[in-house]
Design a protein that fits this description.
Layout lengths: L1 H4 L5 H5 L9 H7 L21 E6 L1 E2 L5 E4 L8 E4 L4 H8 L1 H9 L4 E3 L2 E3 L2 H5 L11 H18 L3 H8 L7 H20 L10 E5 L2 E5 L2 H24 L17 E2 L2 E2 L2
Antiparallel strand pairs: 1-3, 1-4, 2-6, 5-6, 7-8, 9-10
Length: 263
């Protein structure tokens, strides 16, 4: 390692050549790396201080897929890590509602044809408060998907390529579609949007044919998310949570839930 580090430009990396180049102490403090974890039914240490697993997503990918990894891992910089283990939060993130925000609200960026999931995508998303309402569907969705991955030795990209293929009618994929539609309805319902007809089916999108909600539902959801985002920002300004004179029209970080800060 040292001969390689001796040639890098950054002085810190040359001097402290035996350390990880970017060790992200804030992240590892939040997830308790270095603590001796004990298994817990709800995914927390016995002391309840740190999650034993965290939610992760590849920063650059056209596959919309969040998953859980054990929190004792050392994470690559190409992965977004959310220091929470809630299956309710997982459901909110994996839903089409959050994907619409990332792909259309101007908070995400693209690299070639792939979506780059930036921190602002997460930080400005107007999360709902009742994530506990989504725990059941989040757990069922994740468990079914994990069983598919293990039994078929497929990766997330392969699973979702099958999900979005109209000619794919295998029972496991049909069930995943059903769970995805149920999860989207649960997330919309948690926002109080019970009036929406999501219209799940195969639809033409900028990413090609996808099993997703209808275009009219996508536009309506985006409008409502933007309105909610601005409403929350106005409330935060009134509470003095933003610098005076700031030109930003979106909350710097409103992603607080009943679980607390997510980073």
């Amino acid at each position: 390692m040292k001969p390689v580090r001796d040639k890098v430009d950054r002085e810190r990396n040359r001097t402290l050549w035996w350390l990880h180049a970017e060790n992200r102490p804030g992240l590892y403090h939040a997830i308790g790396l270095g603590a001796r974890f004990a298994r817990h039914p709800k995914g927390w240490t016995e002391e309840g201080s740190y999650p034993t697993r965290v939610i992760v997503k590849a920063k650059t990918s056209n596959t919309w897929a969040f998953t859980f990894l054990q929190s004792h891992f050392v994470f690559d910089q190409a992965i977004t890590v959310i220091a929470q283990c809630s299956t309710g939060l997982f459901a909110a993130l994996q839903s089409s509602i959050h994907e619409i925000w990332a792909r259309n609200a101007g908070t995400g960026s693209t690299m070639k044809s792939d979506l780059r999931y930036s921190p602002s995508t997460f930080e400005t998303f107007p999360f709902l408060g009742g994530l506990s309402l989504l725990e059941s569907i989040g757990e069922r969705y994740y468990s079914h998907r994990e069983n598919m991955i293990r039994s078929l030795a497929e990766g997330l990209t392969q699973v979702y390529n099958r999900l979005h293929t109209p000619d794919e009618h295998a029972d496991d994929i049909q069930r995943l579609r059903e769970l995805h539609a149920e999860m989207d309805r649960a997330v919309a319902g948690a926002y109080g949007w019970t009036d929406l007809d999501l219209g799940h089916d195969f639809h033409e999108t900028k990413q090609g044919i996808r099993f997703t909600i209808s275009e009219s539902a996508r536009r309506e959801i985006l409008d409502r998310l933007l309105a909610l985002n601005h409403q929350r920002y106005t409330e935060e300004v009134a509470q003095g949570l933003h610098d005076k004179g700031s030109k930003s029209k979106a909350p710097r970080k409103n992603a607080k839930t009943e679980q607390g800060d997510l980073f």
